[in-house]
Structures are given as structure tokens and as C-alpha cells.
Design brief:
alpha/beta; 2 domains; 3-stranded mixed sheet; about 15% strand
Length: about 350
């Protein structure tokens, strides 16, 4: 692409990090979110966004525009990077929809099956030439450390991506090829099941409830919470996840548990130190459960239920998560039933994810 403009939607750590990173790389960035005058005022007052960690800025980085006007931000954009939590996907889709047009490409980071929400609305309303894709995981792990400061814990590297439907994945990769290194996943389900958060977040939070409730904002999972017992539980989750991947004819990318063993090898692997330092979760209601139980874990368990795959540890974690927070993440989560995809054979499900059509449909 010759046009170097991009709209980044969000005002949290990922959006701020992405906006600063893309600006540093020479792109014209519009940073947009709803009613975020205070956050944007902090950035303006500071002269821009300051990055810390693996990418440090000597001076603050200011996007070319910050606005809560979605018509201005989306109406003329060809590339939109959506960086919000899963509970905001529908809200952001509603705000973008009036100005969405054929030819645009949306990439959601992290994906968490948000592409289903966007595509469902676009297709129902006749906007069928918009590409919607989502990342496996996030652009980079990061945290807000000040009013206009963000810690980037790992470099922005190659990321797996899948469009919904997957027949448009290459279009998404090409649309962003001058900004990011994207590599195709088979489809959004293969990508979602390969999210490292599925393996570690729910188990890591539930097995650290006492420390989290006592330490609050000072708790850091990768410093305070990793233990051999937790990794045995995470290993069981990963094995159940891998069995689901196998049954659906998907690939397993990397081992999260292996990376966690490196994380626990304190005094070595200095490249992981910023990641180890990331604070969170500060409570049992944070996204480590609210997002990951209702998205990746709910998807895994629903696939297991649909196709008769045994996943007892994942089901137990879902039950405990529901109990401690008094909310049924499975009932209200991104399951096959709730996404309108239950009742299909495995082959038809994959065909639907890749083309939005099924044999005989």
C-alpha cells in the first residue's frame, strides 16, 4: 500500500502502544475512542505518548490526530486497527458501522472472536466487501504506567492472523504488509485456540486467588504467581487444548507451558524481564478471567461438547470461574451456540469459517 494512514481505535495500553509504534514507523495515525477526552488530554499535555521497556522513546510520540469522532476516524480510512477488550467489541462495531464501507480492512487486536460480531452485522446489512481479521494474541504485551506512558514488554514481531471468513486472510495480510509482519492462521478458531492466554490466564488466576486478593494492584502473575503446581495445571489445559486442535484438524503453534518454564527460570532469559514485571491481575474480575473464560475457554469447551472431546480440567476451571465471580461465562460466552455455529459437522464448521458457506447450504 502507498497510503501510510491508519486509524487505531481504543485508548488503553494496546491502542496507545500501537499508535506510538506506528507513528514512529512513519505512519499517519488517527487515534480514536468514545468519550476519551481525559485520556487524550493527558497525551496532549505530555506532548505525546512515551514508550518504555523494549522500545523506549527519547521524546513523546504524538499521533497526527486524536478524536472521539468516529465519522472522521473511520469514514475515510482504509485500514482500521481495533484495540479494545472483548466486552467492547459490539460497542465499537456499532460506532464504526455507519461509516464502514466496502474496501476497508479491520484488524482486531487481540481478536477474541470479535470478527464474528463485526462480520455478522456487516453481512446482514449488505456490507460484504469489508475484510475483518483478528490477531492471535495481541500486537504486544503492554501496560499503562502513567497518564501518557506505556510499557512494551516484548517487541512487535510476526503475528498470526485470520480473517472471517478465512478466504480473505491474504487480503488482510496484504493490506497491512507495510506496517506489520502477519502470517496466516487457518481460521479464527485455530487462532483463538492457540492464544497463550487460554493456557495460562484462567488457571493462573484461579490458583492464585489468595495472593491476588491480598496483594491487589501489586500482584504480578509472572513474578509472584508461577509455581510448579500451576504449570502442571497449565500443562493439562494445554494437552486438552491440543486434543481439540487435533480433532478439528488444526495446528498447534507453540507451547505456552514451555515459555512459562523459561519465565520461572529467574536469573536467566533476561529478554523476558519486562514481561515478568507486568502487573496483573489485580482482582478475580479482571480480563484474565472475564475475557479469557468467556472467549477462548468458552470456545474450547463448546467445541469439546459439540464433538465429544474430553476436557475435564478446562470444564473444572470454567465451573470455578463461574462460582468465584457469580457469573456464567459459558452461558454468556463465545460458544458455538451463541455464535450460531452449533449443529455442524467438523468439516462443515471449517468450511463455514473459511467461506461462510457449508456443503448443501
Amino acid at each position: 500500500m502507498t497510503d501510510n494512514s491508519i486509524t487505531v481505535i481504543g485508548s488503553g495500553a494496546t491502542a496507545m502502544a500501537a499508535a506510538a509504534y506506528l507513528t514512529i514507523k512513519g505512519n499517519q495515525v488517527i487515534l480514536c475512542d468514545r468519550e476519551q477526552e481525559q485520556r487524550f488530554r493527558y497525551i496532549e499535555d505530555a506532548g505525546g505518548i512515551t514508550l518504555e521497556g523494549v522500545m523506549e522513546t527519547e521524546v513523546p510520540v504524538l499521533p497526527c490526530c486524536m478524536t472521539d469522532d468516529f465519522q472522521k476516524a473511520v469514514g475515510n480510512a482504509s485500514r482500521i486497527l481495533v484495540c479494545v477488550s472483548a466486552d467492547r467489541h459490539r460497542e465499537i462495531m456499532d460506532l464504526c458501522f455507519p461509516y464502514a464501507r466496502d474496501g476497508q480492512t479491520y484488524v482486531i487486536s487481540p481478536g477474541n472472536l470479535g470478527a464474528v460480531i463485526f462480520v455478522d452485522r456487516f453481512y446482514k446489512e449488505g456490507k460484504r466487501e469489508i475484510t475483518v481479521a483478528e490477531l492471535v494474541g495481541n500486537i504486544c504485551p503492554c501496560r499503562i504506567t502513567g497518564r501518557a506512558r506505556v510499557l512494551m514488554a516484548m517487541p512487535v514481531g510476526e503475528k498470526r492472523i485470520a480473517a472471517f471468513p478465512a478466504c480473505r486472510t491474504q487480503m488482510a495480510i496484504q493490506a497491512f504488509e507495510d506496517m506489520f509482519r502477519f502470517r496466516a492462521a487457518r481460521n479464527i478458531f485455530e487462532g483463538m485456540l492457540n492464544s497463550p492466554n487460554l493456557v495460562i490466564h484462567v488457571a493462573g488466576t484461579l490458583l492464585n486467588t489468595t495472593s491476588i486478593e491480598k496483594m491487589g494492584q501489586e500482584f504480578a502473575l509472572y513474578t509472584n504467581g508461577l509455581t510448579p503446581s500451576l504449570l502442571r495445571c497449565a500443562d493439562a489445559v494445554e494437552k486438552e487444548r491440543n486434543q481439540v486442535l487435533k480433532e478439528l484438524d488444526y495446528s498447534a503453534y507453540t507451547s505456552t507451558v514451555s515459555k512459562m518454564h523459561q519465565m520461572m527460570d529467574y536469573g536467566h532469559h533476561d529478554e523476558l524481564n519486562y514481561f515478568r514485571s507486568l502487573k496483573g491481575p489485580a482482582s478475580l474480575e479482571e480480563r484474565y478471567i472475564s475475557e479469557d473464560a468467556s472467549c477462548s475457554m468458552a470456545l474450547l469447551v463448546s467445541l469439546a461438547d459439540e464433538y465429544g472431546i474430553e476436557v475435564p480440567v478446562c470444564k473444572a476451571l470454567m465451573t470455578i470461574a463461574n462460582t468465584v465471580n457469580g457469573f456464567d461465562y459459558y452461558e454468556h460466552g463465545r460458544t458455538l451456540k451463541n455464535m450460531g455455529m452449533s449443529g455442524m459437522s467438523r468439516e462443515n464448521l471449517n468450511q463455514y469459517l473459511e467461506s461462510l458457506a457449508v456443503a448443501g447450504g
